[in-house]
Amino acid sequence: GRPAARPGESDYIVSGRTDTDWVLQYINAETTAGGIAHWITTQVAGQLRTSAADWEAAWQAYIAGIINQTEPFQISHGGPVIAVQIDNEYQQRSTTSPYYTLLEETYRNASIDVPLTYNDAGERSNFINGSGAVDLYGLDAYPQLFDCAHPTKWNPVVTNYLSYHERVNPAQPFYFPEFQGGSFDAWGPGAPGYPACAQLTGPEFQSVFNRQLWASNVKMLSYYMLHGGTNWGAFPFHGVYTSYDYGASIAENRAISTKFSELKLQGIFLRSSPAFYKTNFIGDTSAGGALPNTTNVAAFVSLLTNPDTKTGFYVLRQTDGTSTAITNFNMTIATSLSPTLNIPIVTPTLTISGRESKLILTNYAFGGSTVDYTTAQVFFAGKIGTRDVLFLYGQPTESHELRLALTGTPNTAHQSAQVSRTSSVSGTTILGIHTGLTGLSTLYDSSTQLVLYADYATAATFWAPVISSGGQFGNFWSIGSNSTLLVGGPYLVRTAAVSGSTLALVGDLNATSSSSSSTVPLSLIVPPSIKSVTWNGAAVAVQAGISTVGGWTGTVGPRAAATQVKIPALTGWRYADSLPEVQSGFSDAGWVTANHTSTNIPFPMYYGDGRVLYGCDYGFCENIVLWRGHFNAATSPPASVNLSINGGEAFAASVWLNDVFLGTSFGNSSNNRHILEETDDKFTFPAGSVKTGDNVITIVQDNMGLNETINGNANTCKSPRGVRGFALSPNTTSFGSWKVQGKVGGYLGFPDKTRGIMNEGGLFGERAGWHLPGFDTSAWVKRDLLQGLPGGGAGVGFFVTELDLAIPAGTDVFLSFTFEEPLGQAYRAYLFVNGWMMGKRVANLGPQAKFPVHQGILNFSGKNTVAVALWSMSSAPVTPNLQLVVDGVLDGGVPGGVTVNNPAFSSAGRV
Length: 911
Prior knowledge:
Elements: E1 22-24, H1 38-43, H2 53-70, E2 83-88, H3 97-108, E3 116-120, E4 136-141, H4 161-168, E5 175-180, H5 194-200, H6 203-215, E6 220-224, E7 229-230, E8 243-244, H7 258-271, E9 280-284, E10 299-305, E11 312-318, E12 327-329, E13 331-333, E14 341-343, E15 350-352, E16 358-366, E17 369-374, E18 377-384, E19 387-394, E20 400-404, E21 419-423, E22 429-433, E23 440-445, E24 449-455, H8 456-459, E25 462-463, E26 486-488, E27 492-499, E28 502-510, E29 520-525, E30 532-535, E31 538-540, E32 542-545, E33 547-556, E34 574-577, E35 592-593, E36 613-614, E37 624-632, E38 640-646, E39 652-657, E40 660-666, E41 678-684, E42 694-702, E43 722-729, E44 735-741, H9 764-768, E45 781-782, E46 795-806, E47 811-819, E48 827-833, E49 836-842, E50 850-853, E51 861-872, E52 882-891
Parallel strand pairs: 1-2, 2-3, 3-4, 4-5, 5-6, 19-24, 28-30
Antiparallel strand pairs: 7-8, 9-10, 10-11, 11-16, 12-15, 13-14, 16-17, 17-20, 18-19, 20-22, 21-22, 23-24, 25-26, 26-29, 27-28, 28-52, 29-33, 30-31, 32-33, 34-45, 34-46, 35-44, 36-43, 37-42, 37-44, 38-41, 38-43, 39-40, 39-42, 46-51, 47-50, 47-52, 48-49, 48-51
């Protein structure tokens, strides 16, 4: 949604609401003004996010839009919404509590009956009790912090989560609305980029830190971020760049990472373990703890048990969570068969590899059977067909064992010979899994039970799709369906459906030429009633394997068309100058006169003549804003101008006197190591540049986004973007009129309602619609983008080309526009794809050079318009080398394809 994008309108759109568990009014998230609409930051005089009357009037329409979209999709109405978060990361004070109370009343008075929640910025105890308290309190945590430049440096595991919860809200479920799933990255050549952030918060981090949450008895958990995204247009705040990949488990370009595989293994285990939903914390091996039961102090153990089923969850990790050492040990556990049991029994030792966490389970149910204990990890436990199925996994460098009562008539055809079997107490058997076992192995296969084991890498290829039962909650596990099956091998399994004796699978296969083979092994654990299988509608030949009953193997492969995807080169560029404002005779008569002498922005001008030159005050808050200051040099001509310019971190502003380029003020220090929010510079006038009569200072200023709430003060979102000081020197001459121009139409009159208020800035080409599909560039000169601007100097130009794509249906291609020249050139490039501003290339700072663009913005089956607004910021030539590259190909894709909605050029409302 676009929160209250225009005064008095909600403009709120819930996308994908049938797949979400909660909808929220989100604040911060590295978005401009933390998600608050730009017009509010200047037109609301009162303190934001308080009970101020004008703030209340401003948010009413937006909240009404949320309520309108959410109400029919609450779980109480048969939908997926289980809670509504009313706000985010704030402080409970006398000025803010009434605001929260009013928010809650607004939701409740409009038929929102699911719990209202809040996310605290750490362990701060806000809105748990007293005025403004919510139904369900939660907090966020980013224990690894955000130093992606040192991705192997870990912070210690946080050990006080449980004590905090028991102290502040023990009667509520322990809830983390945000837990670290990645990291944002900052501007600058010292920034490593998001691959390093993915490493910092990789599967090892997820293994240790996520399971530490389990050990702390956390019962509700949401990761920030699960899926990386794109800060298109003017959505980012000034501290981050276009990509919001975040090093997330699903990358910005939609590729699945090893982080996703680890989360999948954890998630299916939790889904399979209803006994974990209700546990008591028993103790741990901390100093003075209740469980000093390991033979090695380097191993740390926490124990939780279910009071009803007596299932035990021993959570193991290194005592020093940052350690990369391998720790071997024995320990004592309690099971229903052995109140005191020293393990392991048949394997040499328990092992925790460096930066790894795992569980030992006792009295653990799978279907109607029970495991007395297992040191192997559980991926899946439950019934498939009429059989009890247990799927275990582990690292092949470690040994594992489990004890259980084996039932049914055994089938020995598929049992692994590399697994030992030892009789134990009460008719149970200990299955020993020794080091070196890889692939998928059948430990026990009978008419009533199936026990499988795989090494970690093999287990990570498996999926457990829900088989819909129909009805309101048919796709939701435990409340609508408890039917599933296991599918191993494919890159992605989207859905599984059973019709009669046929299993229909829909999903994706990796068809990237550099990484794909001709076929992928397919492994299936299905009900015995399944006799045939299809993959994306095509029949698959399968044969018995894994298990005598309900175990099938086969192969699937990508279609030939998917392995032969070709992308055309970006050629045929046309060029036009986009800075007529510095040319003689340009008239700014139609621009807004910047004559305000007061402002609701709480940051004063530094110097000038009393006029306020903040773009947001005049309706121009997004992207590039142009300023023109007039002065008359009839008598003593000035020699320079001083300008204090605020554009946010990593901004830039180029300055001209008439048609003479004076220089560029960069929002970074000379060594590019300190990113600045504002600058104060003196621009000297070359000899002869001041003319008799009217002279014009033209400023092209980039707005990098507004600040978020800082230290609980929401009025920091009212950022003073623009010119905070102006003075001619010597001061015998003063400025006459100041004119300002940003996005055409400002807050209310912008013509492109589809792409919205955040998409465009104030460059002449943007105001004229040059970036839109269908704009006629046939009269423009032919000039390759790699050649830069004519003459090689400072200025702004538009480059436009078209390309045709013919990507086969049912193919998902990860495409990125990539600037391939080295970092360091003084230019900015604004990338428009079919009219959407999908990238801001800051070539002197970086780090981003690759800009993923997905289907829907790109038309995979037809013509596409690519436009680049090139701003050269020095007298040195620049050579942007933009290419469209394929990052990956999947055969399958989104069923039914993706709808394209890229409105073409219209002259209405344009200059």
